[in-house]
Amino acid sequence: MQIDLEKKHLELKCFFEPEGVAVIGASLNPEKLGYQIIKNLVAGGSFSMPHLKGFIGKVFPVNPQAKEILGLKCYSSVKEIPERVDLAIICIPSKFVPQAVQECAEKKVKGINIISAGFGEAGEEGKKLQGKFLSIAKKFGIRIVGPNCLGTLYTHTHLNASFGPFLPFDGATTFISQSGALVDSVIDWSVKENYGFSAVVSYGNKSDLDAPDFMAWAANDPYTKAIALYIEGLNDGRYFLEVAKRVTPIKPVIALKAGKTAAGTKAAGSHTGSLAGTYQIYKGAFKQSGVILAETLTQMFDMAKALALQPPAKGNKVAIVTNGGGNGVMTADYCEELGIELPPPPKELIDKIDKSGKMHPAWSRSNPLDIIGDAGPERYKIALEAVISSDIYDGVIVIQTLQTTTQTVEDAKLVVELQKKYKKPVIAAFMGGPFTEPGVKYLEEHGIPNYNDVDRAAKAMWALIEHGRYLKKRGKL
Fold it and tell me: How far is 169 from 182, CA to CA, in rounded Å?
């Protein structure tokens, strides 16, 4: 099976960069999805937030009972729209969806987000309706997202073609999710955490397009640096494997697979009509294709952030630099559990640090390098540069705890400076609250991922090592 990633990117471009979007089922009632979707397109979201902007293209509400919605002229049918429509969003009762898809076909619409539920997940009658609209779509070459989905969001074009609450901040991760409600929660969470996305996709029942299709699209999206994937099941495991093998050498993919247990598998079937499959089979397929497996949602986004911002590690040897001994010990524990090696610094490296004359006499002279609690930027720079410039270490985890002498922003600046100089992966764990926040903000604005707990930092470094190992195996690193 030969997958043309560039062709797939162009085919699915209509879901992210359409010139015109029609909303079939647009409503004057603010409590209806048809109103909320129009507002999302016009304003970027149903909530007011400073970063939100409206979609850069044209929006066409379709409602035969209304003249205009939110200042936009309404049309009685998608066929009556005089301008180009690349994407249609359908949010009408399921029994009317096949006719709406037929009208989209006559209008030469390229892609459709079917938000409506009541299809493959809802019994035999729903499956028949799904079959009807699919046969029309296939006949006319229309691609379908959904049904029973949230839709698609793309921050570059300010496109919120969904009923998600608002567009997230710009970022470098594409999030592809079978669950729409999960996407809603993730978008809300992302604002609190200042976590950005390039694109978000909720594909629901996957009647047509499935997760690997969007992975293939993201492989050639210039704004995406990592792909995060929540799946309950796949329509075609072989297709997923082939796409993943093509995508992972280009963009790292992190997956969270739901439906691990008998109870979870049963729930997945009733949720999106999904065949969840055996978890061990998925686990093996992920490993074979270079997809990194996450155990939790937080872990998935932690690893995606690291993989989007930092280069892959060329090996498995890591140095820990810390101003807190206990934090260093915990990090060492987590690293060992993950199989990360922590080689002790050789005598010449220890001598080099000692000769600086700037270190506290009690610094640890081991790995973790504990530079003692009162360490300022100068000590951090000496220790960090010594290990990051050494051929012994493939990456560094740098930990900062807040002491009365800590200069969090200055420490952050030197971390950024040294990572840029030596091009090795650096993970930060600047731990604390409001007084640490300015340093954290500087780190993340300059491409250094930060985690407020050392177990998360260790797992993020592990992801960089795993991706590097896979790239080496494929001859790409």
Answer: 17
Q: Token digits for 352?
A: 């080099």
Are 249 and 201 in contact by the 8 Å Cβ rule? The answer is: no
In this structure, are residues 129 and 7 in contact, taking their beta carbons and an 8 Å threshold?
A: no
Q: What pLDDT, on a 0 to 100 scale, did the predictor assign at position 269? A: 46
Q: Please give the C-alpha separations between residue 370 and each of 207, 322, 380, in angstroms, as whole numbers.
A: 55, 5, 10
Any idea what DSSP says for residue 345? Answer: P
3-state secondary structure of 137: helix
Rounded CA-CA distance 366/362 in Å is 11
For 389-423, b/e burial (b = at least 16 CB within 10 A) is ebeebbbbbbbbbbeeebbbebbbbbbbebbeebe
Exposed e or buried b per residue across 211-228, where buried means at least 16 C-beta atoms within 10 angstroms of its C-beta: bbbbbbbbbbbebbbbbb
Backbone angles phi, psi at 218, to 5 degrees: -65, -25
Q: What is the DSSP letter of 301?
A: H
Per-residue pLDDT tens digits for 1-36:
678 999 999 999 999 999 999 999 999 999 999 999
> Quick one: tokens of 335?
């690293």
Residue 166 half-sphere exposure toward CB, CA atoms < 13 A: 18
Distance, CA of 32 to CA of 188 (rounded, Å): 20
Of 366, 377, 358, whose CA–CA distance to 320 is shortest?
Answer: 366
Phi, psi of 17 (to 5 degrees): -130, 50
Give 199's strand partners: 154, 174
Give, in degrees to the nearest 5, the angle at Cα 254 between 250 and 260: 145
Q: What is the pLDDT of residue 125?
A: 87
> What are the Cα distances from residue 204, in Å, to 70, 162, 262?
28, 12, 21
Residues of the chain with pLDDT under 50: 263-265, 267-276
| Helix 211-219, helix 237-247: angle, nearest 10 | 20
Q: Any bridge partners for residue 227, and if so which? A: 174, 253
